[in-house]
Design goal:
Helices cover 29% and strands 28% of the residues. It contains eight helices and 16 strands. Helix 5 (154-165) links the parallel strand 7 and strand 8. The radius of gyration is 19 Å and the shape is globular. The structure holds 4'-deoxy-4'-aminopyridoxal-5'-phosphate.
Length: 288
Amino acid sequence: MKIFLDNQLVDAEDAKISVFDHGLLYGDGVFEGIRLYDSCIFKLDEHLIRLEQSAKALMLNIPMSRVALANAIIDTCKANNLTNGYIRLVVTRGVGNLGLSIKNCNNPKVIIIADAIQLYPKEYYENGLKIITVPTRRNNPSALPPMVKSLNYLNNILAKIEAQSLGYEEAIMLNDQGFVAECTGDNIFLVKDGMLYTPKIASGSLKGITRQVVLDISQDLSIKYIDTDITRYDTWIADEMFLTGTAAEIIPIVEVDSRVIGNGKPGIITGNFLEVFKSKVREEGTKI
Ligand code: PMP
């Protein structure tokens, strides 16, 4: 496998970074997860723009232009003969000393890994996923804005640990006010009385690229959406529910906190969204 590192493609065994990189020492950096479908990169520009915005929030200078990054991503996919897969784009603060200060970190590192995608098991898409609300809250935006896709995922990791220790694969994370924010690696949608609901970004969720695709599809399907404050109660009484993410795509939820959602089977409207989504990812994208 070839990895993009230090402006070149190197063998995976040689793709090494310093133990003084602040990405490792402090989780100081940003990343994107991007999909390649049939040799087309889905929503590449959107991912690159979000990466730039995350980096700007952390005052991290990405040492490559958007075009150069796009070309490097394409080269990495090609070097690995990949036609379908998952691309991980990482920018770390780079090597510094053992202090927090970024003053000595003069060489941010760009890393690109293009590999096969690890999907959720097929049965979750067919039968739906059961999830639970966990105690760990999503980051308070005044501490670390959840809109920043940073290398520091510790509160999501704690939530995932809590979910898995109870036998669940995903968890709902609430914000400081107790409203639903998102899951550990996916955005949340509800369907109630034919309307689509999702937590507003200010509730503490990542501005998901797949979330936006679903909002666009809702226009195509003439389904009205509202992004608003959502409570746990709202999730329990939803007719349908699904999660969205680059890796998970659209995954139906059939149980939340031991309450059955709808009739306990993936919802019809959820299925409609999934169908349009699947056609979109094959039709749109940047050819490699
Ligand atoms: N929320 C979090 C916390 C995430 O890490 C992700 C990405 N895995 C998402 C939502 C979904 O975002 P996207 O659709 O851009 O992948």
